[in-house]
Amino acid sequence: MVVLVREQGNPPQEHRLCESQHPELCRARPTEFANHYCCYSPLCNQNVSLVLEATQTPSEQPRLDGQLPLILGPVLALLVLVALGALGLWHVRRRQEKQQGLHSELGESSLILKASEQGESILGDLLDSDCTTGSGSGLPFLVQRTVARQVALVECVGKGRYGEVWRGLWHGESVAVKIFSSRDEQSWFRETEIYNTVLLRHDNILGKDKGFIASDMTSRNSSTQLWLITHYHEHGSLYDFLQRQTLEPQLALRLAMSAACGLAHLHVEIFGTQGKPAIAHRDLKSRNVLVKSNLQCCIADLGLAVMHSQGSDYLDIGNNPRVGTKRYMAPEVLDEQIRTDCFESYKWTDIWAFGLVLWEIARRTIVNGIVEEYRPPFYDVVPNDPSFEDMKKVVCIDQQTPTIPNRLAADPVLSGLAQMMRECWYPNPSARLTALRIKKTLQKLSNSPEKPK
């Protein structure tokens, strides 16, 4: 046999022995310290070479025990962060879905409940209900969109340069739907912004509680439509009303005074939590004044309105390239001398235009059985669709104003109305009447003992 032995600290040593002397070694298992080879023929161990088992010492083994925490620590921390982030995101999404679901249920349930009640006005109740925002700025946007999607258009009742007005039906009630053309998107946005942010609680202004219902951007026939939904006034605009109706002096005074009340409320700034900024209309004309069922006027179409807050002295002109109606433009606008950084300048242009509206009312008022056909201001000196230059020549260069019928002098109310028109048309803007003065003068005429019965 051959035996290979390695003692501690020494190199392996080979020993050649006879099997008969150490038979127990042939039954031993090789280790890293000893190995053996047994054979059973003469001198069979002469050419045998052995090696020890290639077993690593503890010092040679990889030291993974110390490295394992360094590897697993960052991995576990990353997994924990990912899990926490996913849990937080799920929690936020779930809370948002619950809130949206609650708002949707509130809006839809309110609409359904209101629709199910018989014998009363759904729109009136909806605007008076708890669905409103409480700030005087109209219905919440979710309810506005719900109303808009449920309106069915019935008939077109008006068409102009910047869009159309339709009569629509919502749960059996008539509503007015003003559809803006795409080029007039800024007017739709501005009017929606004012109705939804400014407190306009006044009988003679189309605003929250007084006519505005909803606005929405919708898609029909593969095109985008901009809707503004208001209460439907069957008499239409003052322009439409005057073409159909002649007026008694008392009705003329009622129309004029209610319109003046609305304009005075627009122009004044109201302070406090229930306040509002001062507002100039900038496109006042008979087409933008509606006649309500009680034969009072309310001012509409605030797409060009300018707002001013005295406390901050901030003038909010908006971002609308559209200009007002040329026929109703004041001379300082036509000759481009208006001070665009001064809020009072815009109020003065409203007064000029209001004088033209008074002239339209006066022409359709019967005095001694005489009345004129409806005509727009300056009908006799400019074409149907006058250009900017046409109006500038007539108003600024020729300094013309509409002719006031002589017959108005025969009536105490209408003679006062005629004098008021002249004071609205002063070339010097600051010399014109204020809306509040017009309102008080008309109230005085209304209370006059000489007023027609």
Descriptive labels:
Phosphorylase Kinase, domain 1, 453 residues, receptor protein serine/threonine kinase, single chain, EC 2.7.11.30, Transferase(Phosphotransferase), domain 1, rod-shaped, transferase, manganese, 13 strands, 16% strand, CD59
Topology, please?
Layout: E1 2-5, E2 13-16, E3 34-37, H1 64-116, H2 122-128, H3 141-149, E4 152-160, E5 163-170, E6 173-180, H4 185-197, E7 212-220, E8 223-231, H5 238-244, H6 249-267, E9 278-280, E10 289-291, E11 297-299, E12 306-309, E13 314-316, H7 331-334, H8 343-363, H9 388-397, H10 412-424, H11 435-446
Antiparallel strand pairs: 1-2, 1-3, 4-5, 5-6, 6-8, 7-8, 9-12, 10-11, 12-13
Helix pairs in contact: 1-2, 1-3, 6-8, 6-11, 8-10, 10-11
Protein name: receptor protein serine/threonine kinase
Subcellular location: Membrane
Binding site for ATP: 178
Please sum up the structure shown.
It catalyses: L-threonyl-[receptor-protein] + ATP = O-phospho-L-threonyl-[receptor-protein] + ADP + H(+); L-seryl-[receptor-protein] + ATP = O-phospho-L-seryl-[receptor-protein] + ADP + H(+). The chain is α+β, with helices and mostly antiparallel strands. 37% of the residues lie in helices and 16% in strands.
